[in-house]
Specification:
Length: 191
Amino acid sequence: MTTPGLRDQKRKQTSHALARTAFELTQERGLDGFTIDDVVKQVGVSRRTFANYFSCKEEAVAALALEQLEDGIATLPEMSEGTPLLEWVRALALHQLSGGMLDLLIQLRDLARKDPALQPFVENVHAEIRRTAQAVVTAQAKNSAAKFAAPIIVGAAYGALTSFIEAGSSDAGAPLDEFVEKVFSKLKAGL
């Protein structure tokens, strides 16, 4: 893996600062309680810089989850060559969700319930998570049977985990690792 250059690092830092600020302002004031000008003033950049990264403040709020997704994929632990695909997907789910993604998705869910204008952007986050998981899992599949099973496994696991996010919260019900283990033991029993 190549190390990003200084320019790429700066772009990532600026994007993160804008997204983090928009997210925090939404939590504090609600989506209608601040403007893009408030975000750029707090970050110390121009409105044009904001427009280089995001089309609107709703997109900026949701972008934090997409950053977390990219960071989680970049830091995936190595798995042995012979690891069954279902076990690999379980490890991927635990890695992504335990790294703060679950809490962030629940916070986004709650913000979108308060401010429905965020809902399409949160749905886009979920769609991107699923597309990314599908691509990563399919790349991990080494033979035609595994490549055939990959979308089924991702769809089943993603459906169960999304239901948990939509209905639950990070501090209610079973702990995340327990829930993930239950989901994957059911998937394993059915495959």
